[in-house]
Design brief:
The chain is an alpha/beta fold and about 230 residues long. Helix content is about 30%, strand content about 25%. The protein has seven helices and eleven strands. Strands 5, 6, 7, 8, 9, 10 and 11 form a seven-stranded parallel beta sheet that branches. A four-stranded antiparallel beta sheet has the order 1-4-3-2, with helices on one face. The radius of gyration is 20 Å and the shape is elongated. It binds S-adenosylmethionine. S-adenosylmethionine (SAM) binds next to helix 7. This is Ribosomal RNA small subunit methyltransferase E. Its EC number is 2.1.1.193. It is found in: Cytoplasm.
Length: about 230
């Protein structure tokens, strides 16, 4: 379980009401049971549930079980699409080890409203479920051009479904394992030609293909991340 609290041996810490509900109501745990805790800073700790009522729960960290891992450098830039697809991408990207989920707004984005708090909660739950010791950050939704103008030069791979780009697998092989990279997919309507041209003018951008079929944005996001993680992930 993730808690934004310092983890120290014997120092009792409160759980959130949602965690109390999950542990008591869903998992049917009881005081004295063991849980694993992390906070993104102090590694993983084995802890004991010291109190558990309907909306209140507390833990006592007993001993460290895994050292803290670094926040992954990999980033996902995802164009705002419909809510279910955004939720799904946030969950899968977390499982696939992303460090930052950055919603971007493009000309064909169907919405400019992204509930980043909701995405952060989904990312936290997915991090707990998959056993990582960091929760990806969810950036505020921002126009793509603004994100590109402030870019730090990290290689940015962009999904292109127009059959004009080399395979992602080729580009991914040129990246060194464990170094930073970012993956960007467009909205359901794709990027406008001018947006693609603007992307291609940037030295840090490579447009790449995931094959001859047109994938949904969320499929392209997750398929690309799987390839990138397999070849250049940490
Ligand atoms: N404009 C397209 C159309 O209607 O023909 C569809 C865009 S697609 C649903 C959404 C995004 O997924 C694209 O902007 C691209 O980034 C990514 N994508 C989809 N298929 C892809 C492929 N075969 N290779 C690389 N990226 C792909």
């Amino acid at each position: 379980l993730y808690l934004d609290q310092p983890l120290e041996e014997g120092r009792e810490i409160p759980a959130t009401p949602a965690q109390a509900h999950y542990l008591g109501g869903v998992m049917r745990r009881a005081p004295g049971d063991a849980v694993l805790l992390f906070n993104g800073r102090d590694g993983e700790w084995a802890a004991t549930i010291t109190a558990l009522r309907k909306d209140r729960c507390a833990f006592r960290p007993d001993r460290p079980t895994r050292p803290q891992e670094a926040t992954p450098a990999a980033r996902l830039l995802v164009t705002a699409v419909k809510r279910d697809a955004m939720d799904w991408m946030a969950e899968k990207a977390t499982e696939l080890g992303i460090g930052l989920i950055q919603p971007v707004l493009t000309r064909r984005s169907i919405t400019d409203r992204v509930n980043t708090g909701r995405l952060a909660a989904i990312a936290q739950e997915a991090a707990e479920q998959c056993g990582r010791l960091t929760v990806p950050r969810v950036g505020p939704a921002a126009p793509l051009h603004a994100v590109l103008d402030a870019w730090d030069g990290t290689p940015l791979l962009v999904g292109d479904e127009r059959r004009e780009s080399p395979p992602l697998i080729q580009a991914a092989q040129t990246l060194s394992r464990g170094t930073a990279w970012a993956w960007l997919v467009g909205p359901e309507g794709g990027f406008e030609r001018a947006e693609l041209d603007d992307l291609r003018r940037r030295a840090f951008v490579s447009t790449v293909s995931l094959g001859p079929r047109i994938l949904r944005a969320e499929t392209a996001a997750v398929a690309g991340l799987a390839v990138l993680q397999a070849l250049a992930g940490d």
